[in-house]
Request: fold
Amino acid sequence: MDMGGLGRRGGEQGTPRLLRLRKLGGRLYEAELVTEHGEKLRLQVRVDNDIIETPFGRYHLSSLDISESEAQAINTGESWLVEFDEHRGVLRAKLSMKVVEAAKKPGDKIRKGDKIATIETMKMLNDVHAPCDGEIVEITQPGQGLSPGSILARIKCKT
Reply:
């Protein structure tokens, strides 16, 4: 089965669509993919920086076509970039990344969906949006690198 390959870009024919990437522990993740034939696969994979290791081979995350719902799923606390622990108000990196811009600062009021930061991962810029209405308590400053599990922001959500 052709799973995309290291050198391929998302959107090419035969490239799987990444629906969900959920951390299981350490560098182990559960990936849910849809193949070019519409078959859903749920695999345990290892993620090391920007490389995903699957039973079918290794490839760069940018070679996968990321589903629009997964890219915008930050609002529900799930994303391929960050995860939100609503009980602690902590937004954590799922991948290695660098903060390029902090669009908000501690004390700023936010609304769900507001851009709070721009990060760089896999040589791509991605905006991170507020998962809830509330207030920024802490946010990582531009130029700082984050490893998987590191805190990008702390948010006090309105209940």
